[in-house]
Structure formats: structure tokens, C-alpha cells
Amino acid sequence: MKKFQILKHVDDVIKFCEMQFPRKCNCCGKEFTDFKDFLLNTEIPSHAQNSNLQIVDFNDIQDVIAYRNCKCGTTITLPCSVGLGSKTMLLNIIGWDSEDNDISKLEVVIKLRDAVIKKVLGDNYETTKS
Ligand SMILES: [Zn+2]
After folding, report:
1. Does position 126 have pLDDT exceeding 80, yes or no?
2. What is the value of pTM for the model shown?
3. Alpha carbon of 28 to ligand 1 centroid (Å)
4. Structural domain contains residue 130
5. What is residue 2's three-state secondary structure?
6. How many domains, the chain?
7. pLDDT digits (tens, 9 = 90+) for 63-108
8. Residue 61 domain-assigned?
9. CA of 34 to the centre of ligand 1 (A)
10. According to the model, what pLDDT value does residue 85 have?
């Protein structure tokens, strides 16, 4: 199995996600001070462990969108790369990793997601609930 090129961009994705904070839940008003706070106080929607990510690939919009649930139950969307200079590159790399490793693009994105969460929260945090 080849190395995943996408994992070189973990820092870029984290940087972009951090730019979107502080932000509030539209429903309950809970404020998330930063990306780490957001990850700690939201969760991947249950029954959606492997489908809370959406790859958007239109002509002028290319991004990975993550869905996470606020504790009040509202789903909050978090774009992961729009605004980065390399936004089309991210989608290209996901495509290449997918072909090189013979797995779906979504599986590549899940690897990216888990690497981002692990880097922000540390090794002790479990990326998937048991
Ligand atoms: Zn809320």
C-alpha cells in the first residue's frame, strides 16, 4: 500500500478549520471558542461514523464538508478547505490516493478526518465511538 499523500495536508486543514472559530450553534447558542473546543463539544452524528463527510466537487466549489452534532442535537457543517489556496489540489490528492490505494474517495477523507482529530486532540482521543 502506498503512502497517503493527503496526510501531508493535515496541518493545512487544521489551520483552515481554526479560521472559522469562534462560532455559535444556530439552535442553542452554544459558543465554540476554537476548533479543539468544537471537536470536544460536538460529535460525529451517531449512525453516521463513515458518512458524516461529504465531498463537494462542482465546477467552482470543491471542498470536503464535515457534519458534526452539537449537544443540543443540531447538525453543524464545517467546510474543511474552501479558502485554502490549494482547495482544488486537496480534491485532486484525494482522487490520487483513492486510485493508488484502491479505496473510495470517502475512505481517503475519513483517514484525513481521523488524522486531523488525532492531531488536534491528541492520541488518547478515540476518533470513533465504540
Ligand atoms: Zn446547539
Report:
1. no
2. 0.85
3. 4
4. no
5. coil
6. 1
7. 888 999 999 999 999 988 755 565 678 888 999 999 999 999 999 9
8. yes
9. 15
10. 60
Q: Which amino acid is at 116?
A: V
Q: What is the span of the domain harbouring residue 52?
A: 10-120
| pLDDT confidence of residue 129 | 47
**In the 8-state DSSP scheme, what is residue 67?**
E
24 alpha carbon to ligand 1 midpoint, in Å? 8
- In angstroms, the CA 17 to CA 33 distance is 12
| Ligand 1 geometric centre to CA of 37 (Å) | 13
How many Å apart are CA 74 and CA 6, to the nearest integer? 29
- Cα gap 39→22, rounded to integer Å: 12
Give the whole-angstrom CA distance, residue 71 versus residue 37.
Answer: 13
**Percentage of the residues of the chain whose pLDDT score is greater than 90:** 61
| pLDDT for 47 | 77
Cα(125) to centroid(ligand 1), Å: 22
Q: Tell me whether residue 112 is in a domain.
A: yes
Q: Is the residue at 59 inside a domain? A: yes
